[in-house]
What we know:
Layout: H1 3-17, E1 22-24, H2 27-33, E2 41-46, H3 50-56, E3 61-62, E4 68-74, E5 77-83, H4 101-116, H5 147-153, H6 156-168, H7 174-182, H8 184-190, H9 193-201, H10 208-217, H11 220-224, H12 226-229, E6 235-237, E7 245-247, H13 248-258, H14 267-275, H15 280-283, E8 285-287, E9 290-292, H16 296-310, H17 315-326, H18 337-344, H19 349-363, H20 368-380, H21 393-400, H22 406-420, H23 427-441
Parallel strand pairs: 2-5
Antiparallel strand pairs: 1-2, 3-4, 4-5, 6-7, 8-9
Amino acid sequence: MSETLKQAQVLCNTLLRNGYEAYVINARLHxxxxxxxxxxxVDIAADMSIDELIAVFPKIQTTAEPFVIAVLVEDGVTYxxxxxxxxxxxxxxxxxxxxxxRLLQEVERVQSQALNLACPYTPANTEPADEGFSDLxxxxxxxxxxxxxxxxxxxxxxxxxxxxxxxxxxxVEANTWMAIIRGVQPMLDYVPVSAIMDEWRKVxxxxxxxxxxxxxxxQVLHGLVPEIAALSRTKQPKGENGGGxxxxxxxxxxxxxxxxxxxxxxxxxxxxxxxxxxxxxxxAEYYGESWHFHxxxxxxxxxxxxxxxxxxxxxxxxxxxxxxxxxxxRFTPMLTDKGIRRFTAIDEYPRLIEMARANIKARDGSYxxxxxxxxxxxxxxxxxxxxxxxxxxxxxxEFAGIRPGPAVGMIRDAxxxxxxxxxxxxxxxxxxxxxxxxxxxxxx
Length: 444
């Protein structure tokens, strides 16, 4: 805080000690307005009449300035006093003075000078972030002018500020942050869901965890995706060795942070981590002194589909994310050779592996089952075209009782897929399979 504002605060404290209300009007704007002023001026709001002001400050003078009660010049600083009285029935916005005409003119003067003195080119990290934002050189995400008023001009700026904070790894300036919190409801009321999701999609995969954390902290997430916000009140064991409890939301955000470590830039996989445990909200059951979440992956996929439809996601994106949520536990248990082959037959299984890895990292869990499965995965990693069926063409015709023709090739391909999935592992099983397949498909 500048010395001028410190002196102004001393005057305000004097009035407070005398039983009155007083404060510097928008101290943050004053910091900008005071730059380069040879004769500093400060605007103060006080709930006092001119006679009461004179009683405290005998040197104070009346003035013809609009809305100004009096002016005091002291130690080279001019203080303009404005009325701070607000009736009980007024709107909350009217209870605190946010600016004055003089203050706004001074800020415009300072900003205009700074623009004229700018160097011929602007480094990339100091470019204006967007209309409505100050540049990033200050190390914070800052809405220009009076944050609340700037936000009212376009509420999408609130979501954009959070996106910038996540992508640029910068804090949101305190007054901007409070404006966002105060503006959450109109933000949700007036900004189309599609516009919010446009901002969300511009968040890099590696920063999605922080974006979601900020949405939760300012309570946008509570209105946008209440199912995820409610996970902050859903408990689960932390770790596998009695490490206490954590909220499911804490675990979810940690999974989102860990997932891109192995699959960078995978936006969809990271989003699947956001929803992978949403089913726990609906399946939580406490017994045996522990929480249990049976079938939370199945329920979670259904809830995720409902949420993503509400958020206007494209159908193909919904199908992908719901698929990952549905099968995210498939790589968790210690799988047999057959189980591994069935696992590799699932679409997007590399992403499922990384979801399992992120889950272990997030909980400081054991890698015993994971490492076992990875070793079996190497053995099961046989190109499909190199895998021979357990029965040749003549044997297929003999056991299925069919004549030469296209049906033989169909059964052969089906038999190979069954072997890949681990459903058929021996000749007797192959014989039984081709017989059932022939009857089911009514082949001759």
